Each structure stands twice: as C-alpha cells, then as structure tokens.
Amino acid sequence: MLRFSVVIGMLVACGSNVLADLEVVCPSEKQTLLLRGSAEVSRGVRTVTGSVDATGHGPITYYTVPFRKGIFSLSWKASDEKCLVFVFDSKPNGKATHALKVYVNGAPGKGKDERDVLALVTYDGSVHADKKATIVKHDHYSACNQWHEMSVTFGGDKAIVSIDDKSYAVSSERFLEPIEKCGVGHFSGSLQTRDVKIQKHDEL
C-alpha cells in the first residue's frame, strides 16, 4: 500500500503529531460485519456478492475499529463499473451517524448512474429531523476488473482521500469526532478487497 514516508506526510497535512505511536490494526472476524449479500474469503481476498434490496441498499461490510486520527486503507477490485461507496461513521452523543461518504464511479441518488465522477459527501449541521449533506464532485474513473489502492486519512477537521495516484481533500467538523466504523459497499456484481488496515495515530 502506501509507503511509510507518504503516510507520515499525509498525517502531517491533516495536523497529526507524527511523534505519536502508529498502531496498525487488521480487522478481526469479530470486528467485521456484512449487511446484505454474501461473502467468501480465499487467500487473503474477501469477495462480496449481491445486489440492492427493497430499500435501495446494496451489500456493505463494516469494520468497527474506532480511531480519532489515522488511515483506513485497502485494495479493491469490482466486477463492473457501477458505483462503489465507502462510508465512515462517527458516534456523537452515543448515536452512530455518517461523517463522510466517498462514492467512486457515481454519486448519491440519481448520481449513481454517473461514471466519470468521485463524490465526497459531508454532513455538517445534519440532524435526524433536518438531514443535510454537502456533495463535492471530482472528475475520476476507476476501471472495473482491475485492482486499485485506496486510503482515507483523518486528522483534525480534514481528510484526504487517495485512490491510486490521485488525492482529494475534504473538511468537516464531523471529523473532529472519532471515527467509529468504516464501511465498504457496492450495488451489483462482486467486490473483492484485500489488505484492509486501520493505521491508528491517536494521541494519548
């Protein structure tokens, strides 16, 4: 995945104290939860298959490894070019809520049919009674049936999303809360993942 020097540079950009210890966590089976679809693991590759249900949601795997500052990273390969979504939830006031969603080859709602776009969705000011979302789109395309490397670095109110050789910055007050869990989802076909890691850079 990312070279250590690049990881440190990204943490500095996000305001981290690079002198703090870096703890690398590979999520265990107990820390991994699949919602919808089915999953198989072979030779370090996790393959999830399935399609959307009556609510419009597709399969998603959640990794519950809380951290305040750090990096979520993985490699992935999709069987088709339809939209993927990476979800990062915080838990302010004891209730899980979205902090960031990253859509690859698509966007929320009707934007799921778009292909040459990466959408970053943040939720400042959003509450249960008045849901709000800010969507920022970038030109981007990830080819299907190819492995891609992805990481999302959190530090302070900033995050950096990196896919292969491209990086995108985003900020939100929600990022000041610890990330409770990270999700990897898709809407059709199969999605393969490997080398899923959370590099925690929390300051004590």
Description:
It is a single chain. This protein has 204 residues and is mostly beta strands. The protein has one domain: Jelly Rolls (Sandwich), CATH 2.60.120. The chain contains 1 helix and 15 strands, in the order αβββββββββββββββ. Strands 1, 3, 4, 6, 11, 12, 13 and 15 form an 8-stranded antiparallel beta sheet that branches. A 7-stranded antiparallel beta sheet has the order 2-5-14-7-8-9-10, with no helix packed on it. A hairpin with a 6-residue loop joins strand 7 and strand 8. The longest helix has 10 residues.
CATH architecture: Sandwich
Shape: globular
What is the quaternary state of this protein? single chain
What class, by secondary structure content?
mainly beta
Ends apart, CA distance between termini: 26 Å
Quickly describe the structure.
The protein is mainly beta. The chain is built from 1 helix and 15 strands; from the N terminus they run αβββββββββββββββ.
From the structure above, extract its key features.
1 helix; Jelly Rolls; single chain; 204 residues; seven-stranded antiparallel sheet; 15 strands; mainly beta; disordered N terminus
